[in-house]
Amino acid sequence: MIIIGATSGIGASLARQAAEKGYLVGGTGRREERLISLKEALGDAFFYRVMDVTQRESASNTLQQLIDEMGGMDIIVLNSGISNYPSSSVTAMEQEIIDVNVSGFVNLFGRAFSYFREQGTGHIVGISSIASLFGTSRAAPYCGSKAFISTYMQGYRQRCNASDQFNITITDVKPGFVKSEMTDGKRGMFWVGETDVAVRQMLKDIENKKSYSYVTRRWRLVAWLIKLTPNLLLDRLKIGA
Ligand SMILES: NC(=O)c1ccc[n+]([C@@H]2O[C@H](COP(=O)([O-])OP(=O)(O)OC[C@H]3O[C@@H](n4cnc5c(N)ncnc54)[C@H](OP(=O)(O)O)[C@@H]3O)[C@@H](O)[C@H]2O)c1
Known about the structure:
The chain is of the alpha/beta class. The protein has a single domain, classed as NAD(P)-binding Rossmann-like Domain (Rossmann fold), CATH 3.40.50.720. The chain contains 8 helices and 7 strands. The chain has a 7-stranded parallel sheet with strand order 3-2-1-4-5-6-7, sandwiched between helices. It binds NADP nicotinamide-adenine-dinucleotide phosphate. Residues 5-11, 29-31, 34, 51-54, 79-82, 100, 127, 129, 175, 177-178, 180-183 line the site of NADP nicotinamide-adenine-dinucleotide phosphate.
């Protein structure tokens, strides 16, 4: 299993839990010291490469190096993501979210899809969000980026379902609020799940090759409610400024 964005939060917990279950795990991220710590903790079960997903050509080459070193890839988890952060320029902040969450995602998704198609089989897991289901004034670019990847994955899933040439599973993980550096100190959250609990549930869904995974489980209810809520009401939500 290769995890793109394994240096903190959900990705780091997944690396640990997968290694404990006997998976050979590859991890990436920009913070090399975090990858070294994981290597020290997980030993021979863990391989790593420093990677910035916004450097698309280099990220693709780095992924291939990791695959070669590990002797192959059967599952890739595209987890790298950023949310809104305080910035002097809203435009720059919004562009960075798109660079990481959309362009970085699509680049590696495409590489992984080609690899698995050639191999005939594989599993792509994309970490989207409950935020993919509706826009919020507080995090418009983040919600938009997650809506993009969920819709994008659905299109690819249709392609996989229609093909008898290859057997590729695509899992769209939609976490609600989960404890991590991303949510640290953010206001207005509720039902904030423990990282290890959310990841344990997610790993179970990955192993069961689910198309959709809601973690923690109660967020499935929120997703269901959002889908039933008319846009007339969603357009008048007051979440942040
Ligand atoms: N926590 C939540 O409540 C929540 C809810 C819904 C969805 N999610 C999604 O879950 C995923 C993981 O988030 P998290 O909550 O675990 O947050 P986190 O602790 O901040 O982890 C983010 C991960 O993304 C990586 N990353 C960020 N920018 C990158 C870049 N340019 N190149 C490569 N890697 C990059 C980080 O690695 P480096 O900084 O080392 O590069 C880190 O490993 C994200 O896609 C997030 O949108 C989280």
